[in-house]
UniProtKB/TrEMBL annotation:
<dbReference type="InterPro" id="IPR003735">
    <property type="entry name" value="Metal_Tscrpt_repr"/>
</dbReference>
<dbReference type="GO" id="GO:0046872">
    <property type="term" value="F:metal ion binding"/>
</dbReference>
<dbReference type="GO" id="GO:0003677">
    <property type="term" value="F:DNA binding"/>
</dbReference>
<comment type="similarity">
    <text>Belongs to the FrmR/RcnR family.</text>
</comment>
<dbReference type="Pfam" id="PF02583">
    <property type="entry name" value="Trns_repr_metal"/>
</dbReference>
<dbReference type="InterPro" id="IPR038390">
    <property type="entry name" value="Metal_Tscrpt_repr_sf"/>
</dbReference>
<protein>
    <recommendedName>
        <fullName>Regulator protein that represses frmRAB operon</fullName>
    </recommendedName>
</protein>
<dbReference type="GO" id="GO:0045892">
    <property type="term" value="P:negative regulation of DNA-templated transcription"/>
</dbReference>
Length: 91
């Protein structure tokens, strides 16, 4: 994923925020906070993870599938790769 180097710091910052959110979930559970507090923390971290996924997925589509030069036998056609990525997202 050499193309992610351009956005490396932004991606790492997102990952660090997600890590902090997951740690907040752990603390909330340890402190036996209410269900609504825990659910809010989980929802926030899921949203952050989906945001990270969207950024990386969009970059992958733009870099490797839409604007990419065709490669002989690399990983199938760009269309097939896109379908595979989208299917994996919904699992």
């Amino acid at each position: 994923m050499s193309h992610t180097i351009r956005e490396k710091q932004k991606l790492l910052n997102r990952v660090r925020r997600i890590k902090g959110q997951v740690e907040a979930i752990e603390r909330a559970l340890e402190e036996e906070r209410g269900c609504m507090d825990v659910l809010q923390l989980i929802t926030s971290s899921r949203g952050a993870m989906n945001g990270l996924l969207a950024v990386v997925l969009e970059d992958h589509i733009r870099t490797h599938l839409v604007d990419a030069e065709p490669h002989d036998g690399a990983h199938g056609s760009g269309t097939e790769q896109l379908i595979e990525v989208v299917h994996s997202y919904f699992k």
